[in-house]
Amino acid sequence: MNSKDTLLQDEASRWVARMGRSDWGDAHEADLANWLAQNPRGQGELLMAQAAWISCDPETIALGQPPVTTPSWSRRRIMLAGSAAAMAASIFGLVFYNASVSGYATEVGEVRRVALADGSTAAINTDSRIAVNFDKGHRNVRLDRGEVWFQVKHDRARPFVVEAGPVRVRAVGTAFSVRRRGNGADIIVTEGVVAAWTDANANEPVSARAGTQLFMPDTPGRQRPVAIEASAASSLSWRSGQIELVARPLADAAAEFNRYNRRKIVIHDPTIANEEVDGIFRTDDPEGFATAVHDILGVPVRTSGDGEITLGRK
Fold first, then answer.
1. How confident is the model at residue 80 (pLDDT cuts 50, 70, 90)?
2. CATH number of the CATH domain containing 263
3. In terms of residue numbers, what domain contains 23?
4. Rounded to 5 degrees, what are φ and ψ at 205?
5. CB count, 10 Å around CB of 299?
6. How far is CA 75 from CA 56, 57, 63, 81, 111, in A?
7. What's the gap between Cα 134 and its chain centre?
8. What is the pTM of this model?
9. How many Å is the maximal CA-CA distance in the chain?
10. Whether residue 164 is found in the same domain as residue 253
């Protein structure tokens, strides 16, 4: 192995370490995309580094448990050498290099960052599943459930299309998220412009630009979907393991925490469901949220034997 190979492996390992930091954001995603564009072999090295990271310390991929860089660093370096690197490559590399279709899924409370074969990156939110299908003329991603944020590598000859039920979202080189709902899909654009439509109105796409949010229903009615201004930073705070609430009804806030935790929050008093709450919380800390609600609204908080957290009186 020559010095250039070693340097590239070291850089890939550093990128994986940075991904686990709480301050990771859009600027870092863009820097990573640029690094992948400048290093043709960086894609494979990044995948092996990710595999090594997970093999050494699987808990690092859980939200609210950011990797501890110093003690894990030496282990990742070891895993990237020799036969261990080949084993790591078998975990991720074969998915990209021996097949045109690959799938990724996350468990409840897990966020996973994936470097796609075209140089794009995907941040996959809790309890989500995607199927990726790239060929010479197309880049298609099917979102079966959950939510994903994409930093798309620019390639005008191959549009990047996300399918979420009957909803379609197309981009060329941009950044956006798609969340599958029961009756449609939420779309948040953080960079560039996307076009969205459904199978029923493929000839009438709706455009959404950076800094806007769009809900595209599965079955459009007479009223066309409208893009509204949104704070992408707060809506996508899950990428750094946080839930940011701004004048959020208590019932919605509890539902958001329940997305990330098997320990559920239940509101027993319907009179407090619409009380608005604000704050920034860890996704894996429903107890901390419940305590804050108790302090701010003065509502009773109880924990049942099975771990369920109840707010308010019955």
1. very low
2. 3.55.50.30
3. 1-98
4. -65, 150
5. 20
6. 7, 9, 21, 10, 22
7. 20
8. 0.69
9. 68
10. no
Return d(Cα 291, Cα 189) in angstroms, integer.
Answer: 33
224 and 110, same domain (yes or no) = yes
Under 8 Å between Cβ of 84 and 129: no
d(CA 188, CA 70) in angstroms, rounded, equals: 35
Residues 18 and 78 in one domain: yes
Check: CB of residue 53 under 8 Å from CB of residue 72. Answer: yes
Choice among 40-54, 155-169, 173-187, 223-237 with the minimum mean pLDDT? 40-54
For residues 128 and 90, membership in a common domain is answered with no
- Are residues 157 and 200 both part of a single domain? yes
Burial class (CB in 10 A: 0-12, 13-18, 19+), 182: exposed
Question: How many domains, in total, are found in the chain?
Answer: 3
How many other CB atoms are found less than 10 A from the CB of residue 110?
18
Burial classification of residue 198, based on how many CB atoms lie within 10 Å of its CB (0-12 exposed, 13-18 middle, 19 or more buried): buried
